[in-house]
TrEMBL record:
E.C. no: 1.-.-.-
Domain Flavodoxin-like per the UniProt entry, residue ranges: 257-395
Keyword Oxidoreductase attached: yes
Signal sequence coordinates: none
Keywords attached to this entry: Oxidoreductase
Keyword Zinc in record: no
Molecular functions per Gene Ontology: oxidoreductase activity
SMART domains registered for this protein in UniProt: Lactamase_B
Protein name, UniProt field: Lactamase
Family (UniProt): In the N-terminal section; belongs to the zinc metallo-hydrolase group 3 family.
Amino acid sequence: MNVIEIKPDIYWVGVVDWAVRDFHGYVTPSGTTYNNYLILDDEITLVDTVKHDFLEVGIANIKSVVDPSKIKNIVINHIENDHMGALERIMEIVPHDVTIYITQRGKAGMDRFFDISKWNIKTVKTGDEIKTGKYKLKFIETPMIHWPDSMMTYVDGAKLLLSQDAFGQHIATAARFDDEFIDCASLTELEDATLDYYANILMPFGTLIKTKINEIQKMGIEIDMIAPDHGIIWRKKPDLAFGMYIDMADNQAKERIVIIYDTMWHSTEQMTLPIMRGIREEGVDCKVIKLRSTPMSVAIKEFWKSRGCLIGSPTLNNEVFPSIAEFMVHLMGLRPKERLMAAFGSYGWGGGAVKWLYEMFNKMKMPIVEPGVAVQYRLKPDDEKKCYEFGRNFAQQVKDYQKKFAGTSTKMCKLCG
């Protein structure tokens, strides 16, 4: 990829990873990018690096803009390997007295990756600034969005927020900007990728995200471009990116139900059909996902998009089916809120799966609809009717629950001009 000037004298010098399909367990069917940025000013500044696998490409991109020996500052917004992986090699080609700006926690983590004893490192906190010339960099700590070391860098004079992992997506594309991507794909695809990224990575941090957005608003800064470390740069619709994050942090979801299930001898699978008919009878949209046929990250995204979720599992060894157990443990780690839950399943001579699921719902402190429904062996006509009524009742409960969130969605943000 050629480097691209995103603001006057500010360049994208990142790389596109077209081939990656597994990002630490998160399926990335569209690949991803590792974005980093070069500011040409009186003091030339590099913000973040790229994944180690692509360090030579990243260095070549920097060299196409400027001689690395002229770099004065390096900002590390986040120490995860895909953003700091090339730093050691970068340090071999920049001046020995280059200054690295990083949070205190970032420095402590960096010391676990590299021998930093000979590096000139300056720790920063929210409100700290450095002047590079016509531009001024303002640092904003964002701990646990999504690592303890994380921060963002605001380029004063460019109205540019270098947002590290926030507002990103896992998309490999020749388009660098939102308007370019929308022209060649669609706005719906961009919004879906943004939601997918949030659901699988940032879901646990909604309260922190709301607090941090409020903090940025109080700083009085104006943003007309958001440049994340993954995916598309928001130059036309930064307000949409902020609005989506505010909505997601407020646990917004559609009035729809996702059925996430797995099956052993198809009995649990057969239960999904009358349940779905009952849901649709109430006019509620429904999506059905079989776990062993669907990547975990896709199931998580569909869960997050839906106000209601039904989990279906056969009983195995008086417990839940293994793939369902894996999903539930993963979901519990994401700490979801305000999604209505219920369970169904089949069993042979002894039950257990439905009870196990309700125990998990309670452990997660999720709102629930009881009782669930369990069927022995194969469905009989009475069982089909019972499943149908279960679906109808759950859909009614979801519609009532959704009223709590009516009128709270936003797509605009005061930060964006």
